[in-house]
């Protein structure tokens, strides 16, 4: 479906794909009444140094004072590497926090985008002047990331001077999208057969990056216009590490052998030096490292196993038929990986597709496409989400009896068992953009404790343990399986209070406030508010969400 921009003024949308090994940018200039084009930034300083299409290496060199000295492809130049050694420059991971590094890289990518637009478009300088004060940003991230990481990315953008530091998430110029969802948008524009969409068949999107693999599954129900996620998305991170002495060889491998390798019976050669570089004991002659094809094949096997096992599991458990696997990302250019995956999925009659249009910019292009015309309106909950709450003591319940020593006593005389886990959203549940989940809450305070209602925290937990296990009834039954997701901060001081007499024969009054915490899991960001009834009319107020580090 063709998208026409209905805004009243021209604006610019920029999508940053900040990857663990390579990063890229796509953008679109939105003119009122026009169908926007999606374009990628394909020129960067020293870009000829890398064979990565429209991406640059995610590398930053800092000097001893923490100043940026070289970024991206520039940092791969031999003269820069020599200077770095002489002057003691360090790469990002040695000196800076994740937010600092992301901030510096966002700033660099933004400046490259500005220069590219000014140089590549007719009247580029005038075009930039017309949009520079009205720019929206779309940030892609791995499937497994959540609110805490999004908060860090938002902080990095503010630190880079691209957005205001006090922008509220609900009114921000920043939006987030998972790499899997962005790749779906790209696949729909480049290579996924239209018949797949119209027949309601499932499609698995495999985004193979330099350091991560994201796997997502979608379908478009018959007679519908939008897509829905039909299986829990997966995310895998490579944990291999490089050492300074072989960084260059690894880089050469990534640019050549990793892409071209297709036969495990033939030796492979990695050219990394000059004819003067020789070490026969390590199979190095004339600047080339010789590797047996069978050894090179083992480098790919963990990724092959990871992808094929996940695809197999999805096909077994998904209630909808899967017919296609779409392979995108820089890793999809590997002939060996493609051949092995195609052979692995053949028994299930799955067709594996590779878009041929710059597959390594699938995420950034897809992120812009989603901004222009988002077509995913239902997603699957990755975990079970809920709250720890106090429940009425039941003297006949063995779990309650075992916790009799920890009972809580309220002014009303109620006896409560603490830390019961109440599920608000179960793992595997389909959540649409309009879906709200809520939990009814109440709080009791003495007549002299009303100030305690001004900032009432509510902690949301997720249960991550045991792939298909149901959450336990109480937190202490599997405390290691729970993770704090976020704290919802609510001001209840304006809610109607009920003065009630204290129980158990105690003189005096206490106040009880009843309310519901409502969560919206739509899109890639979690939102929350408080709901209550006043004079028979439902009222709502926004609640702030503070995420915990769940890494």
Describe what you observe in this structure:
There is one protein chain. By secondary structure, the chain is an alpha+beta fold. The chain is built from 13 helices and 31 strands. The strands form six sheets. Strands 10, 11, 12, 13, 17, 18, 19 and 23 form an eight-stranded mixed sheet that branches. Residues 240-245 have low confidence and may be disordered.
Write the layout of secondary structure elements.
Blueprint: E1 11-18, E2 22-30, E3 39-40, E4 55-57, E5 60-62, E6 68-71, H1 78-87, E7 90-91, H2 92-95, H3 98-120, H4 124-131, E8 135-141, H5 147-159, E9 174-178, H6 179-189, H7 194-198, E10 202-208, E11 212-219, E12 227-229, E13 234-237, H8 247-255, H9 257-260, E14 268-271, E15 284-285, E16 288-291, H10 293-317, E17 322-328, H11 335-345, E18 351-353, H12 362-373, E19 376-380, E20 384-392, H13 398-401, E21 408-409, E22 415-425, E23 430-432, E24 436-446, E25 456-463, E26 482-490, E27 498-501, E28 509-520, E29 527-534, E30 537-542, E31 544-547
Parallel strand pairs: 1-8, 8-9, 10-17, 12-19, 17-18
Antiparallel strand pairs: 1-2, 2-3, 2-4, 5-6, 5-7, 10-11, 11-12, 11-13, 14-16, 15-16, 19-23, 20-22, 20-25, 21-22, 24-28, 25-26, 26-31, 27-28, 28-29, 29-30
InterPro entries: ATPase_NBD
Protein name: Actin-like ATPase domain-containing protein
